[in-house]
Amino acid sequence: MFKIVTALMAMMFAGNVFAASAQQPSLLSGLFLPIMLIVVFYFLLIRPQSKRAKEHRELVASLGKGDEVVTNGGILGTIIDVKEQFVVLEIADNMQIKMQRASVGAVLPKGTIKSI
């Protein structure tokens, strides 16, 4: 048993000596993998998220009186009044709520609420 362990240790040491004498990789090849990971994260995660955020900012900036919208909470309504930070939605006859502009999720085509 002792001979087997010493033989395995000798092979491991010989492998380490051989690896130490091998040529060291260049700095460029060592940085290739991290750079590629950053590029992949940019195109798969960061870029699509910033594109969606830009589209939402444009949607919130273009809100106007009479637009039919759905909020992030799922409430359908027609915009009655637009302020700097808030909009007033009419969700039923003579029932109005005030919401933040950023909580508007999507603008619906005209006549959508009446067809539901």
Search tags:
single chain, 116 residues, alpha+beta, SH3 type barrels, 5-stranded antiparallel beta sheet, 3 helices, 5 strands
Portion in strands: 25-35%
Q: What is the element string, with H for helices and E for strands?
A: HHEEEEEH
Biggest beta-sheet profile: 5 strands, antiparallel
Helix content: 40-55%
How far apart are the first and last residues' alpha carbons, in Å? Answer: 81 Å
Structural class based on helices, strands and sheet pairing: alpha+beta
Mean pLDDT: 85
Overall number of structural domains:
2
Low-pLDDT residue intervals, each spanning 5 or more residues: none
As a whole number of angstroms, the C-alpha radius of gyration is 31 Å
Side by side, the strands of the main sheet go 4-3-2-1-5
Number of strands: 5
Which geometry do the CA atoms define? Answer: rod-shaped
Shape-level CATH architecture of the largest domain: Roll
Structure annotation, total helices: 3
Which CATH class of the largest domain is shown? Mainly Beta
CATH topology of the largest domain: SH3 type barrels
